[in-house]
Design goal:
The longest helix has 10 residues. The chain has a three-stranded antiparallel beta sheet with strand order 1-3-2. It has 77 residues and is an alpha+beta fold.
């Protein structure tokens, strides 16, 4: 399982829920299109948040743009 979770909730609410459940946060950031990207300190913590906030999980985050090799990288010769 992944430590990364996308939630259709505010950053402040997600941080409060993590604190309430004693889940460590590695990274948390608001998404441009709304919602929050959360990376937990452990896989177990991520599973706890997934179970608790199951109805607010986002399936795919299309607003996050990937860069670099392997993500549409074209070498110039």
């Amino acid at each position: 399982m992944s430590r990364e979770i996308y939630l259709n909730l505010s950053e402040k609410f997600v941080a409060a829920e993590c604190s309430k459940e004693n889940v460590g946060i590695s990274t948390i950031s608001a998404l441009e299109g709304g919602g929050t990207r959360l990376v937990c300190m452990s896989v177990d913590g991520a599973e706890t948040i997934r179970r608790k906030l199951n109805k607010s999980l986002m399936k795919v985050d299309s607003s996050l743009e990937r860069h670099g090799p392997g993500w549409g990288f074209v070498a110039r010769g």
